[in-house]
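Give me the 3D structure for Dipeptide/oligopeptide/nickel ABC transporter ATP-binding protein.
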Amino acid sequence: MLVCNHVGKTFGRQEVLKDCHFHLKRGEIIGIMGKSGSGKSSLARLIIGLDSPTCGSIHFQGKNYTPKDGRAQIILVFQDALSSVNPYFSIEEILNEAFYGKKITFELCQILEAVGLDGTYLKYKARQLSGGQLQRVCIARALLLKPKIIIFDESLSGLDPVTQIKMLHLLQKIKRRYELSFIMISHDPKICQAICNRVFLIKNGYLVEDNEFLKRACSTNCLTNL
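Predicted structure for Dipeptide/oligopeptide/nickel ABC transporter ATP-binding protein (226 residues):
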């Protein structure tokens, strides 16, 4: 479905990503892990077309795609929820802003309840919510769009452990129902261990598949070995 073919990215004189290559199958969940500043988010921006690779290519469903094409099929849920919404919009407006017509209130209430909120939040302004609550709204918005691929860039990091578990179960359910594929960008080995089929590590700009990660993730924090 998605292939990153020997992709590299340079900002000025800094080579952030080097010869990154991976593929994502339909219905698969892969994890991308690495230390802060390792290039995880830069790779996500390349995949959705916010930035262009310095070298290499990215193919979606067998074709090169433009940023416009990528955004139509691939959604990124950002780490900083507040920066991705208008703080003066109501939650109802945020959930509806991607649609030509409004979703009915019942549907919006259902998706909010799935991420641990309820229908009363529809009238709240984004600036009235906590960081964790707003991140749940952003995840709900992504699920409503029903794309082919959703990239979660540290999107669960602002949630408490109980809600994280609920969200992981929800994501699995949505993935199966709509045959979605996910890319989980995270610094938390437990999140990747819980949901991912395969895990890649970014080290010194290179993306390396770690076939042993899922076996050892429960007993050690592999980030200390990067």
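DSSP finds eight helices and ten strands in the chain. Let me know if you want a second pass.
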